[in-house]
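S.,

Sequence below, as promised.
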Amino acid sequence: MFDFIFKLFSNDMGMDLGTASVLVYVKGQGIVLCEPSVVAVDKDTKEVLAIGAEAKRMLGKTPANIVAVRPLRNGVIADFEITEKMIRYFIQKVHNKRTLLHPRIVIGIPSGITEVERRAVRESALQAGAREIYLIEEPMAAAIGAGIEIQQPQGNMIVDIGGGTTEVGVISLGGMVVSKSIDIAGDELDEAIIQYFRRRYNLFIGENTAEDIKIKIGSVYPLEEELTMEVKGRDQVTGLPKTITVTSEEIRSALMEPVSAIVALIKDALENTPAELAADLVETGITLAGGGSLLRGIDKLINKETGLPVEIADDPITCVVRGTGKYLEELDHIKRKKLY
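The prediction came back faster than expected:
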């Protein structure tokens, strides 16, 4: 009877608690929220002033007493208190404060985090108002969200390039056979662009500008028609605003160091894959997920470096949260066990 009441009034949620953004899936509704993992805080009073999209617009533009921070770094909690407030805010926003009871939440976590970091994720969600917490590794969630038949007795490789981490997993029979991760992903790509402008043009640009450049003209493989873009920043020498025009070829050279590290991680995972599963990958190939998979030419580069077929998942940014959602939909039919 009580279980029926819980189900009636609580909106169970799947959450991709990412370094760059938080996506939320609500059971029976689908994906209902996608906002940046950014919180604006008053340094003097410690008061949270804005969360999500509104806070991201403040990055690099706040007065001295206000700081816009990312409480998650490399896929793990860097600031427990602010993360708790951020999760609580998103729970309340999704529920519109209509729910009478606390939700069950399935959260995607990086495969390489420690037991202490797992407890921090679990504790922050419980403090934010969750009733039950289920953790699922992001490569597994991404594979489920990408539509890979993970229960089949064959090897499938998923590469999830997020904001703070890149995760590589080889999955067979519903389990992770090989798992690798590296703290190089979208944020490192942005930082590589920032550093390139400092070295090449003596120009300071912010995080939002770097991300905009990456999205509009970024590539890691030669394009049929190279792109150009005007970039505004502050001159390092004069301190004055300055505008320059850059090409996609320049940005490609800036991105090659972090992208090469991602390719090396994939090769490392392949070298550690059992022979029978490696043979399967010749046919099943590599599936790319996460926002980083939208970088122009990354599928072609990985194909060239590995010799394996490479496919970008449909709507790669939402793969992890859709995977948590599919698990959530089956939660009542699965034995109550934690996913590790």
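Confidence is low (pLDDT under 50) at residues 1-9, 335-340.

Coffee later?
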